[in-house]
Write a structure and sequence with these properties.
The protein has helices spanning about 5-15, 35-45, 75-95, 155-160, 175-190; strands at about 65, 115-120, 125-130, 135-140, 145-150, 195-200, 210-215, 230, 240-245. The protein has one domain. Strand 4 (about 135-140) and strand 5 form a beta hairpin. It is globular, with a radius of gyration of 18 Å. The chain has about 250 residues and is an alpha+beta fold. Helix 2 packs across helix 4 and helix 3 crosses helix 5. The model is unreliable at about 1-35 and about 50-60 (pLDDT under 50).
């Protein structure tokens, strides 16, 4: 049994235990890097909620996670103002940076699409929206507000599914590197060196054939150091986006 088969066996066993996680490991250096993103995307797909690059997924207690359906009238009023003054401008700014490559319309993200606010105090809050099954996260960290998360489960689930072998991996990318760098610079609002952007065809590490995984900055072997993680689907639209903690 080869290495990939052993990982598949682990995956099947995990399913029976209700712990669904697929982690692809590659036996040579150039193909090892997608595994870290696949592992993190697999976790995100299961929960459909954002994760910090540096912190584990937040769970319980009620003072950290606040369901929108349980907001008091005062909290609802406060959030309406927060959405109009902070969240909405951040979402529209992000959509402008990635214009032509986003899987939703910015005007579809409305205050009533809020599912949850994650945060213990006013120094940090993550606002989680779900629009037509797509999860969107907006981070407010010490007054700096930005969209920092996107997950399209219909696409990212393919990253955690083994190819059926019916077609060879597509090595081309649906969005070229120059376009990706331009979008990232617009998002970042600053300089970004070309060598910081690494592209890996997504068909090399799952069933999302024809897409591309993008790693930005940091140590290529340490995903916690990356500035951004992105996945573009075969249609050229973003399927996954995670902005690192600045």
């Amino acid at each position: 049994m080869n290495f990939l088969s052993r990982r598949t066996a682990v995956f099947i066993a995990a399913l029976s235990a209700a712990v669904v996680l697929v982690i692809f490991r590659w036996s040579w250096k150039d193909n090892r890097r997608p595994a870290a993103l696949v592992e993190r995307v697999a976790d995100a797909v299961l929960t459909n909620e954002p994760r910090s690059v540096l912190s584990p997924r937040l769970k319980g207690p009620s003072e950290i996670k606040h369901r929108a359906s349980e907001f008091t009238r005062e909290q609802q009023t406060e959030f309406q103002a927060t959405f109009q003054n902070k969240c909405k401008p951040a979402i529209f700014k992000w959509c402008k940076a990635y214009e032509g490559h986003i899987p939703f319309a910015p005007e579809d993200v409305t205050a009533d699409k809020l599912v949850e606010r994650i945060g213990k105090d006013t120094a940090y809050s993550e606002y989680v929206f779900v629009v037509t099954g797509i999860t969107i996260g907006v981070r407010d960290a010490n007054g700096a507000v930005a969209m920092d998360y996107l997950n399209v489960p219909q696409q990212t689930q393919k990253l955690t599914t083994l190819p059926d072998g019916s077609q060879a991996p597509t090595l081309g990318t649906p969005v070229n590197k120059e376009t990706i760098i331009r979008m990232l610079r617009a998002d970042q609002g600053g300089k970004l060196a070309e060598h910081e952007v690494r592209l890996i065809p997504s068909g090399l590490s799952g069933s999302l054939n024809g897409g591309v995984i993008v790693e930005v900055g940091g140590d290529e072997n340490n995903f916690a150091s990356w500035k951004y993680n992105l996945v573009f689907g075969p249609d050229g639209n973003l399927a996954y986006y995670l902005k690192g903690v600045e």
